[in-house]
Amino acid sequence: MNQYAKASAPTGAVICDLRSDTVTRPDAAMRAAMAAAEVGDDVTGDDPTVARLEITLAERLGKEAGLFLPSGTQSNLVAMLSHCGRGEEVITGRGYHVFKYEAGGASVLGGIVMDPLEVAADGGLEPAAISAAVKEDDSHHPVSRLLSLENTHNGKAVSLARIERAVTAGRAAGLALHLDGARLFNAATALRRDADEVTAPFDTVSVCLSKGLGAPVGSVLLGPVEFIARARRWRKMLGGGLRQAGVLAAAGLHALEHHVTGLAADHARAEALAGILRGLGAGAVEQDSNMVFFTPDSPVNARLGAHLAKQGVLIAAGYAGPIRMVLHRDVTDEALWAVQNGLTEFYG
């Protein structure tokens, strides 16, 4: 069951939505920045706000150039299409988003082979497994071309040492390196490192603006100038060329300038929610960065979801297995109290 798809419908006003950090909405200051944005036709390279977003993020993350795209899925897809030709291969994690949750786009649209490896408990890939997955130069095999990693993975911020070992294995095999940094700034916050330290080992990186950073739309793909030129062509081919996109880029710029520091508060609230759940003694709890995974001792997912929905709290509870609860900038302390009250009432 898709962990993102189901939630109990609220019977009244929604006080707190924990289904994902993709549900964040632009606040008044972000909307004002969007309304005031200077715009042009981005397909012809005339939108100054889009250009400023691309340059700003490239400089911040130590890359040469950037490309604004409508979504993280399209950003990762464009990256893989730009790195790999038909019949070439991406080595990645079985649970990573590019393999599991992007509809097989690289294979369907690009003829790219995906070789998924098991993901370790800390969210990383084992260097030995990466080395073993690289194909020898034989006409029976696809050409191994790209290693695609994640940070964070299921909320876990993969340590820089762990990333470096995987990167070293990839480099030794001649692979290009891509980072799906959908929650890059959450990773940097959790690791207490600058974001450019997280991205430094990689040739290319995709950064999402519409999750914890709170922008309504958009991701930025970053890498060498020549690579980004190829990516721009792929973006157009995939229908991702936008016109007066500055109103969207302005939201991303506002988020980078004003929302990154707030991620630490989201992580702190996630830790608080994990403490609440542990205090109830109703199941296993794991928490990393802004995510909490709760596995009830008994199969009560649907009933718990329906109960909380009546309190104005939405969780993704319409499936078996752990319930993922994601903290984000729209979850206030008051909203967290509503969650605590609803949980206490259900388990009381």
Strand numbers in spatial order across the main sheet: 2-8-7-6-5-3-4
- Report the CATH superfamily of the largest domain: Type I PLP-dependent aspartate aminotransferase-like (Major domain)
Main β sheet profile? 7 strands, mixed
Task: Estimate the global geometry from the Cα principal axes.
Answer: globular
Q: What count of structural domains?
A: 2
Q: What share of the residues lie within helices? A: 40-55%
Beta content comes to 15-25%
What is the string of helix and strand elements? EHHEHEHHEHEHEHHEEHHHEEHEEH
Task: Tell me which oligomeric state these chains represent.
Answer: single chain
How would you state the average pLDDT, rounded? 95
- The low-confidence runs, each spanning 5 or more residues with pLDDT under 50, are 1-7
* Content-based structural category: alpha/beta
